[in-house]
Fold this sequence. Notes:
3-stranded mixed sheet, globular
Amino acid sequence: MTLQAIIIRADGAFSDTEDVRRRAFAQVFSEAGFDWSCDREGFAMTAKLGNPEARMAHYVRSFLKGRPETEDFSLLIRAMHRRACKIFTDMLAHTPIEPRPGIRDLVVAARGEGLQLILASMLDRNDTEALLANLLGHLGRKMFDLVVATDNGHSTCDDLYKDTRAALAIEPGHCIVLEATRAGVLAAKTAGFPVIMTRSAFCRESPAFSVDTIVVEDLPSLIAARDRDHHDPLSAEDRAELLSTLQRLHAGNCEGLADLGWSDQMRVSEILKSKGSTVKTIEPTATMRALAHSLRTEQVGAMLVLDSKGTLQGIISERDLARGIDEFGTDLPEMRVADLMTRSVITCTPEDSVAAVASVMTQRRIRHLPVVVDSKVVGLVSIGDVLKYRLDEVQLEASVLRDVARSRR
């Protein structure tokens, strides 16, 4: 099927609106006299509770510390929720918000090729229109052929994609959905849409939750690496390549493992049993000179950056050192690791399949995946580990085939 339409999830793939909501929560708790703070990962976890009011109640309960809830508790939650919604709406309309990397370029490229553009939103209609105007200006709405939103917002992702499918005049197979959450991916696939996941900072779930879904950090990751920051606008050639890549992925039904031919039996835990769980780490306050020394003495190409509590803060590699020399010259040796490390780290779990991890490494062009359980690092898988597994698998298959051939003589 030919690609005729691109569907972009407004609150996630189009822009990280969860960061706006987190800031709205922070302002409300401050106004109410609560000392509230929450990082992105912690805030993302509360999305599973459902609507914003339920998330608000969760945090207020943490301040009660087991004390019984009274009628005043319900009144407080409703009042704080109403205030948070107003702040959220005001921020969407008046606070500078950036789209996800590559989104503006994709919109321009798709319009130039005559593809339909659809914005699917869990936000209510007014908030969706405000977000559009904020990100793309007063002509933003005209860039989209269809905006799927309701007056009160969609209650579930399943409802959102059912409504999207009903509103389209073309078959789902002629579309491609850009999502940012696991729930959204599963709902879109259930509705029959091919999906690519551009995982947001508020969705740190395992990238390999579905081996037939392509998962990337952002749209520029889909095209060949360039000497530029991923927030920089794409060139005309880059835009054409991005659109061409999406068309190729759509033609392959967006299957992350379409050409790998790997089995899906072995898990990351098996690799860790073989190589061990020892991980080379460095603190974010260490100097780049200390990093270079550690990389040389430990004979590794990258190190995980952990704080004093053992929490993963980022990853830094020899490539970052090379980039730092080019950008900072003689100032680099005394700079801190935290200044150059990659903070948004893709992770996996021991139960993820090696095949799916290989797919993520290939698509994202990364060489190392930390293995994390309950926010703690339990190991590190490299592209070398993955390739060694594949080589062992191929050799085993060849050995079995030889034995079968001999037995039939």
